[in-house]
Amino acid sequence: MKRQFKQTIWVFVTLISHYRRHPGQALTMALGLISGVALWAAVQLINDHARSSYAEADQLLGAEARYWIRSDNGLGVAVADYIGLRRAGFEQLYPVIETQVRDAQGRSVAIIATDLLALPVGNGIGSSARYSNPFGASSWLALIQADYQAWYPQSLASQLGIEPGQQLVLASGERLPPALIQTQTQQGQRVFMDIAAAMAILGTDTFSYLGVGRLSKLEHLRLAALLPATLKLVTNHQALDLAQVTESLHTHLTALGLLSFAVGLFIVFNAVRFSLLARQGTLTTLREMGISLGMLSIAIIAESLLWTLFGTSLGLVMGYALSQLLLPAMAMSLQSLYAAELGSLIGIQPEQVLLAFGLSLTGVVLALTLPLWLRARESIRRQRDTAAQWQQDQRGIRWLALVAMGLLGLAAVLYPWMASIEQGFLMLALLMFGGALLLPWLVLGLIKTCARLLPKHQWLLRWAVSDALAQLPHLRIALMALLLTLTANIGVTTLVGSFRTALGDWLETRLAADIYVQSESLDIEAIKQAAWLSGYSPRIGLDLRWQNRPTSIRGLDLTAPDTVDMVLVQDHGVLDHGGQNQQAQDQALQAWRAGDSPVIPILANEQVQYLAHTPLGSIIELPTPAGPRRFKIVGYVHDYGNSSLAFYLPGETVMAHWPAAELLGAGLWLSEPAAQIDPDWLSSRLSALGVKPGQWVLQGEIKRISFAIFDRTFAITATLNTLTLLVAGLSLLTALLAVHQQRLPEYAHWRSMGVNFSQWLQIAALPLLLMLAVTLLLALPLGFSLSWLLINKLNVIAFGWTMPLLWSWWPLAKLGILTLGIVLTTLTVSVVRVRQTLPTAIKQLAGDSG
Amino acid sequence: MLTFSAISKTYYQPDGDIQVLRQADLHLPAGQTAALLGESGCGKSTLLHLAAGLDQPDSGQIMIHDQCASDFSDRQWNHLRRETLSLVFQQYHLVPTLSVLDNLLLQARLANRLNPGLQQHLIDRLGLAPLLGRLPHQLSGGQQQRVAIGRVLMHQPRLILADEPTGNLDEATSHSVMELFTTLVKETGSSLLMVTHSQVMANYLDHQWLLQAGQITPVLARDT
Predict the structure, then answer these.
(1) Who wins on pLDDT, A58 or A252?
(2) Looking at residue A132, what is its pLDDT?
(3) Quick check: is A225 in a domain?
(4) Residues 5 through 34 of chain B touching chain A, CB cutoff 8 Å
(5) Domain count, chain A
(6) Tens-digit pLDDT profile for residues A607-663
């Protein structure tokens, strides 16, 4: 036993010694593992962090908020009402001011403020418990005492250019308290300060709302009874809703992370293959010396464990750093899209570390299993026969093609049953990996066809083409990784391009007014009489829950230009139901405007159709104060970016059914073109109508903000795509270096026959370019299929909105140029390396025969 | 055809320098064949490398086809190898992805020196006609070496440098290959310098030289 252990150690040491002479291969292994784990871990850390933030969304700054107390009229909660309730024994109540302001440079800044002394923390029921404050005693005293403090998360401070101690100047001229770079739980990308300071600076004497901790049934009833008529107690569904609406986004990200990990694994597989290939002689010699395959396998597994430990540890560190880099953009997107607040600091949990180790160990073991299995099946004599291995490789390629056909066939069979986002991603995986496994067979077929068709006198060309047969076994895995990343890139680029165009077109029709006002205290009469305004369209509505999802009811002004020109969703010929031709659409809109059917016609956003699975013509029931009312869905409208369900009715109908519906805002049409209006003049005019700065926004600004949110949301996708493409490029480089290193004696011999550099370059480069061409050509239909699935299936299942699929050649051309650039760079590096090492190889040409 | 004048070559190594050639002289006339004999590690292959420009001497002069090659640049050596020289190795060095015919014609194509008459003659003499469409790994060792020899002769070089060309073959095959090789070399009029440790194989050639202690000593010269 002891002897066997010693033998295994010696075998292990012999195998490991390989890397001393070939540090480049060690670097490849490390890079493959580190980059794969890092990209996956970054996405995983962000996703887990976001999910844990949602789980804490029923808390505010560490305190529970099971309920909110909000005003009915939108005027906020008066201080006197708050004090009254506290005096009545409800100590789990705390005041919150949550608002958006503009700084002196016009940038929007979110502020959240509360009374730290009133903040309940912990898990107590009822009013008896007083809890320890979450903020350390040493730090919070400065926050609540004059001159106060404003706490900024690091990313927000960097974004605003705020240094510790500095005071942010607001558009109103007021200054926020001195800055402290410090983050609290659920603070998100908001400035946190004491409520007294906030009230003084913002010039308000009301709170935005009151947060309420846990209430017993009795307390709930008592509190509801005690509330003044203008205040209402509402349940906080935020945690549940956030988890629900953001799930699709996180599933998308997880898929991208796993793709990056798969590409990393391809690189590891490549590196393992090369390291085994380079040590083939050593492995065979060890076998010839009587070392069993079992002992050899143990030594190789020990080596892979070491690699896993090293690669995963460094990968996690890199992934953590990458997640910190990507988090601010992600947090801002989640805040903009879903009002979800993410903390600024990501923590690594032990289970994440274990999962990373488990995944990369599985990957490394898988990467080792196939070569080991193939080796186990070979006789020792055969292991010295390179020609036989070359033939075996071609047989392997044919097997891969069969597996590929199986995967693609399975995808075709499963397609009609695709209904959930998980099934959608399974479909994408089958498609992408089927394509990747098919690639070597296609390349092989092309090489053989070219070799057959090329005229005999084109001997150099024929040589170059036939040399592809020698290069393919070494390059095929790198090419498969490249194909995967190119397919993902084409798919996602087309999705993003189509989405951006659809969003632009939709905003163009939806945003008809020059100014949008979000104020609950508009002076309607003054607006109607303002000569500088040519039109006015109020928006009324309310939020409720339907099918246990957040749902909004919106009342539209039938005379407003955007309502007159309202366009219903056209059938893209993709989905089985919901199609509406022009005539049917006109009839539907007419019926909706008239509203005189036995069942009231209602319009809904597409999310109702696809997320709530409610087809056109459905009769639905909505809760009203007078009990459930029935409505018939007569049409759908696009509502990009909205995570909630929404129903649209004429304003009068809404008021008739929901008398408590509030004025949410209005669209205003200017008498003169907006571009000719002085902003200061406009601001003063709007103030006269009861609209404060920060409560109105120009149409162009909404478009700019919308596109900024859009671009930021997809920036993380683009970053991951680019990084994965670079990793695939790196994989190709290492494969090329390994090929040329291994074939140097061959090249030296060619040189000794008089093959000059340009001829060698043709023979070395042409096969690569040929293989790249096949890869790019296969990536196009695969990428298009991917984008088709993403837009017409996954997008609809995940977000509930449809859009036309638009092909654009320029992003594809850019991707092609980038890929060609990466390939040419890798080729140049490998060629330079050959030029450097060829003289030595030539000297070693005749071996050491004496 | 090939002349070495006072050639010296030392390998500098951490555990002591190895001087493999000391003022060595050699002259191989055009159209003649010679074997360089010597023990393993005595510097035979080094001498061959110097003759092919694969390595540089420390001192001395190398003349090939009346050209002083000692100061040749890499480009000039490359040109010389393409036009004038051919190398034959123990390991054959056939291009595995090319057919036997393409391998046979390869070096002649590189030098733009295809000769259909010679091509047919060599294919017949080497008995390769039934094998032309095969790939190298489908041939035996003897067949592969015959292809390697055919490739060299098809090129019609003035000087052939061979390093243990029969080292990988069994005795019977070695004799048949060597007989064919030397006969064809004579037919094409090339000069041949062959490194070998086998006295039996050396007997096929016109001259035999012994490399010992860095010096070359003639041991046999036949009238040709």
Answers:
(1) A252
(2) 40
(3) yes
(4) none
(5) 4
(6) 899 888 898 889 999 888 888 889 999 889 888 877 788 999 998 899 888 887 877
| Most confident range, picked from A322-336, A657-671, B111-125 | B111-125
| CA B190 – CA B194 distance, rounded (Å) | 13
Is there a single domain that holds both residue A525 and residue A632? yes
pLDDT at A285 over 80: no
A305 in the same domain as A216: no
> What is the domain range of residue A247?
1-58+238-384
Phi, psi of B80 (to 5 degrees): -60, -45
CA B118 to CA B124: how far, in whole Å? 10
Residues B32-55+74-221: name the CATH superfamily: P-loop containing nucleotide triphosphate hydrolases (3.40.50.300)
Q: Do A466 and B86 touch (CB under 8 A)?
A: no
In the numeric block, which tokens belong to residue B142?
């003897």
Residue A65 shares a structural domain with residue A53: no
Give residue-wise pLDDT tens across range A753-765.
888 888 999 998 9
Cα A833 to Cα A36, A755, A766, A836, distances in angstroms: 26, 18, 18, 5
B112 and chain A in contact, CB less than 8 A? no
Same-domain check for residues A722 and A777: yes
Q: pLDDT, tens digit, for every residue of A478-506? A: 899 889 889 988 988 888 888 888 888 88
Contact B45 A387 (CB under 8 A): no
Predicted complex ipTM exceeds 0.85: no
A126-140, A233-247, A516-530, B9-23, range with greatest mean pLDDT: B9-23
Strand A179-181 relative to strand A191-194, pairing: unpaired
**C-beta separation of A549 from A612 below 8 A:** yes
Contact A469 B97 (CB under 8 A): yes
pLDDT, position A131: 37
CA of A847 vs chain B CAs: smallest distance (Å): 8
Amino acid at B157: P
* A231 and A294 assigned to the same domain: no
CA distance A192 to A142: 13
Residues in a beta bridge with A662: A541
Chain B environment of A839 (Cβ under 8 Å): 74
Tokens (6 digits) for A109: 């800044």
